[in-house]
Amino acid sequence: MSAGAQLSVTELRRVARHPVNYPVVVEHRVRGDVQMRVVNVSAHGFMIDDCVDLARGDRIIIRLPVIGRIEAHVIWTRDNRAGFQFERIIRQTDFDAMIDQLQPNPRLRRRR
C-alpha cells in the first residue's frame, strides 16, 4: 500500500508557467516549517529550486497571496528542483490576482 498522495492528474507540465522569485515558509508534516523559494507557478502547481530532501508524493501546505493556504503534492524531483501540484483548482481570477502580486513586472508576466 502506497503512503504517498493519490494524484489524479500528473502530467500538467505543459501549461503556462509564470516566472517568480517568491520565498515562502511551507508546512511539512514531518519536517515542520521549511523555507523554500518558488521560481515559477501555474494554475495547477509550482516549482522550487532549493529542494530539501522531498520525495514524490510528499505533501506540504503553502500560503500564497490571494489564494491563502493550499495543499500541494510533490510530482517530481530532480537535483535541487521539485515540482508540485495543487490539491485543488484555483479560479482564474484569483490566479491572475496572485500573479499580479508575485510578479509585479508586467513584461515578465505571460499573456492572458
Description:
The protein contains one helix and six strands. With 112 residues, the chain is mainly beta. The chain has one domain (18-102): predicted glycosyltransferase like domains (Thrombin, subunit H), CATH 2.40.10. A six-stranded antiparallel β-barrel has the order 1-2-3-6-5-4. The termini are far apart.
SSE topology sketch:
Layout: E1 18-28, E2 32-41, E3 45-48, E4 59-64, E5 68-78, E6 81-86, H1 92-102
Antiparallel strand pairs: 1-2, 1-4, 2-3, 3-6, 4-5, 5-6
Could you list some keywords that capture this structure?
six-stranded antiparallel barrel; globular; mainly beta; single chain; 112 residues
Distance between the termini: 42 Å
Strand content: 35-45%
Order of helices and strands: EEEEEEH
Low-confidence stretches: none
Rg result = 13 Å
Short description:
By secondary structure, this protein is mainly beta.
